[in-house]
Protein 1
Amino acid sequence: MNSRTSLSSWKKLVTQSETMAKCHMKELFAINEQRFNEFSIQLPSFLLDYSKNLITTETISTLLELAKECDVEVWRKKMFQGESINSTENRAVLHTALRNRSNKDIIIAKKNISEDIRHALVKVEEFSNKIRQGLWKGYSGKPITDAVNIGVGGSNLGPQMVTEALRQYSDNSINVHYVSNVDGTQIADVLRKLNPEKVLFIVSSKTFTTTETMTNAKTAMKWLTASSFDNKAIKKHFVAVSSNKKNAISFGIEENNVFDMWDWVGGRFSLWSAIGLPIAIDLGFDKFIALLDGANDIDNHFCFAPLESNAPVILALLSVWNCTFLGHQSQAILPYDQSLHRLSAYLQQAEMESNGKSVSWDGDDIDYATVPTIWGELGINGQHAFYQYLHQSNNIVPADFIGSVETVTPVNNHHNTLLSNFLAQTQALMQGVNKGQICLDLKAKGYTDEYIEKVSSHKVHKGNRPTNTILLKRLEPRSLGSLIALYEHKIFVQGIILKICSFDQWGVELGKSLAHKIQKELEGKEINAGHDSSTKGLMNFIYSTLENTK
Ligand code: F6P
């Protein structure tokens, strides 16, 4: 038996989940007027309301008991102190150090990494200022107007999500573009609009080995040198962010143009490092710092708030409750803010690459559900697409609703319409509406009994669908930093409760290595022995189609 399932709190939660599955949240609200006060947490930049979950005071206290039994506080300390909690790669996990500007020494392998972080930040500041002020010139002496970030996964999703989210704060002095896909369509599309004399390429890759990024960077380099007729142009137009300086230099990037990264920062937690360079270039260094400060606010909250009022801890426990104990294996992220349109993609990597695993950190098979499938879309667009499923399907999908009290871009009464929907949806998902109420309403509207009989059951919403509401006061650099760190720590606690090493990603390796072998075959028009009949059939189809289109 896995040591988690034998914990007394775990056993209690199994029993409680059976009882709670028979309850309806609507009744829990009716019998406890203090429910919102009891199940919400207010922090400087946002309010977390988790009252619309299928929980009681007893559920939360047993979940907190589970957190204690799993030593969440001990593990938290280990992470912040830089112990090698990424056990399969023997690495510390210190993205929190990147936003701790208290000048406190942090020693890893006898090295004070605080100094490295400070130097790296100064380099980001100086460089982004030069680019933004037109002081960094391209090969023909013209200032830079466009920056292209070439990177994928954590070297793309974080910076892109943030620059999109804070677009209203950009002075548009530099246009920032992103290329992540090895599908040539994306880079061709971006390059078509650019003038090589005025472009900066940022090759972002922690490992500097990722095929997609290397392929795109090579294409960009070829495009630049074809226009400048001079390899020296690379120095003016290419920088890299990587922990593999050697590879970056042998790729052709000037040593001074390489921004450091370290193995104690996971790719999906790296936007706080120089991987965030596009953010500083787009918004200005002061706003990048505000983002870091917002994250640091939550680091402090996570470290010092008691578990029962600790927002990331509560979110993690609710995820485990909903997924592992109640069996809801999917979770939607639904921002009610156009600017957060990349948030669900970002959180998909953050949570699924971290905790989408089925082996414990001891190497044992895990026999309970771990994390749900994370997916999502802007809430309003979703309402007219998949909310039908959220309200009436047999599968229950817990959802996080994320919105802001104040809008950054007021237009007529748009924000009131947005907020009304934001509030109405979680109410509808919680309360639902039963057949009796529907019949009464239809009758009052004058419909015939025959019509009522025909449609009433189709209109039933069972409700009882769990949601969290995260209501920011206003979306700005600092509050966005807090929101991201909230999820980062939620994912960390989730991993501890589920006994998962959240900081490796071995599950991406097999596909990568097979793709390398297959690419060699595709380029030589061969099919090696050992493929299954499906893969062989697909390769044959590719070859014969190419042959026929010659
Ligand atoms: O393949 C997965 C992954 O390693 C992610 O974890 C990472 O964020 C992404 O690829 C990009 O990696 P790199 O920054 O090393 O290019």
Protein 2
Amino acid sequence: MKSTENDMILRVAVASPLYQLFDYLPPIDSDLTNLSPGIRIEVPFARGKRFGVLIETATKSALPRERLRHAVRCIDSDIVPQELLALCRWAAGYYHHPLGEVLATALPTLLRRGQEVNETASNTWALTAAGQNCDVETLARAPRQRALMQRFQRAVGYRLDRSQLQTCDFAWQPALKALLDKHWVQPCAAVANTENKSALVNLNVDQQNAVDQIQQQLGSFSRFLLEGVTGSGKTEVYFEAMQAVLSQGKQCLLLVPEIGLTPQLSQRLQQRFSYRFVSYHSGLNDSERARAWQDAASGKADIIVGTRSAVFLPLASPGLIVVDEEHDLSFKQQDGFRYHARDIAIRRAQQLNIPIVLGSATPCLESSENARNSRYHWLHLPERGGNAMPPTVGLIDMRRQSLKGALSPMLIAHMQKTLEKGEQILLFVNRRGYAPALLCHDCGWAAKCQRCDANMTVHHIKHCLRCHHCGSQRTLDKRCGDCHSEELTTVGFGTEQIEDTLKTLFPYQHIIRIDRDTTQQKGSMNKLLNQIEEGQGDILVGTQMIAKGHHLPNVTLAAILNADQGLFATDFRALEHLAQLVVQVAGRAGRGDKAGHVLIQTHHPEHPLLQTLINEGYQRFSEQLIAERKSAELPPFSYMALLRAEAVDESLPMQFLDSAKQQAELIANNTAMLLGPIPAPMARRAGRHRAQLLLQAGDRRSLHALLHQWIRQLSNIKLARKVRWSIDVDPMDMN
Ligand code: ADP
Ligand code: ZN
Ligand code: ZN
């Protein structure tokens, strides 16, 4: 058959759970020359339309021509860059996830829909000439607009950026919108203020050595693990390495674990560099995301700072990738396309032939092992930068102590001393809410979630019970659900309760609570942190959110109220995560010029690994844990994938996994171990029963070869349509 353009068949990755490309005819009346791989395209799918990306063109299809449908339209003429397409294809292969869904995760919503990017989406705004000359008193009846105008008029260059606006104590977006409509304010490109660049720090020997080594590798792929104690000046090392890249006219991609960390980092970037930067995270709206994407793709932005999904931003002229806090679990997406942004970043650096720096005070064991066997260049910063001293760490034995709530007498005494010196205290609690359980004192009944195998958390302030797994909520039970007794008591502690205890113990101190409940509003986290950094707040109580990277110079005492959960959890990674948490929390203390002190409350002060961590440091601890993992043949000495299944019907997930296991056994031929199926640790969540089957192999290749064949057969299992199933490669969380 003669191949003409009329025969062109489009092979499209469609956002759907199926592991295949779909064939279409070009859109009717389309210009075929536009149809190059990477173009975004809308296609008919089942009875609706879906987003897709053209992967390749062909002249033949397995389907007869008359069954092929025409694509609806090309979304626009921009294409997804080939490099990014290649990365997504690799990721789809590695994570055994359908390419269409990978692409849908990678691309901002607006680009999938082909909607116009709103031009007002910006990160920086400035007064127009009219705005500079207007009389703000005409806004007397719009106090927020007036306040905003006054801020603009006082600002350098009449210009404010998002992080500055977020310090407003009112809703600034509607006011800004009104001012944009009045043409008094307009979006403008972020211009770093060149006037006030912060003085460069003098790098110490270790920092300089790290920078030198990274700079020697610019222009080629190499992996660095920058292991530096908290406060050792890792960020300064990134900045110095970035400086070299930026001055060559190349871009830097900087990945951070938490959206909460971007404002502080943005501030530092802005103080340091005169380059343009964009940030990319879940706090942005659709237009802002699309805009950031375009700025990264066009090269308008030199520095791109973002959370997990920023690893998929197109880059016009990439020169360096940095992953800060590389051990952090939030780099791993826990649903849908379960990728690990750090691992994708490494692959991307390889593909781009540029260096990548993974930085952490507490590298994950996988990275440590890679450094130890020289696959990564290992850079060490053993000392804190500047004058800061390392914090001292002590354990508090909780046994037989008379506690005030969750606080031991020893901790309270230390807190008093710290407060007398006018310094700040940080208390870490792993739960928000008042208490993690409500029990009947007469019969032992516990208030359970009706949809999950989990206790309800008591929230006193909102006067309700909430399930932290499915989000369901009900009013506080007044009586036992079994014996109707009114003797209900709470068990355990959450941030709300600690706050209450602190208020009675320290009635004259300013207590700030930081958890998901107090930081729901956009920008509120940043506002609280700024307050704390300015020295407001005597005692800070918070969850994970406060443990990460923030720089709080006046905090000199940090405490972990309960370390015991991490010591005895069933998950083999629990100890690693506990140690990381301890070090991170400790890292918040004594970052200024005052010495810091860290206290850990536990009922098991003799625990050997805890002892190693405290007395010999994280690196020794991680060596010991690595030795344990090695003898148990656990990652990083073996490779895992988890097949999960869930259904409303209790028996279906296990049945499905049984069949799946039989299939896998035939393919695996003893190259991999199949463990299970077993019910998931939380056997029911949000009304669905859950089970899992673990695959473990001694080498990555045989695991992936097995997955590749198996995944394509799974959908043939009769039950595959009755359960929701998903595969998790390199699972981080076995729940
Ligand atoms: P990390 O990223 O390792 O936690 P940072 O880069 O945030 O550490 O540095 C912690 C603090 O120490 C910052 O205030 C930083 O300005 C300061 N610092 C880092 N390196 C030096 C140095 N060589 N000299 C003086 N101060 C430094
Ligand atoms: Zn009861
Ligand atoms: Zn629930």
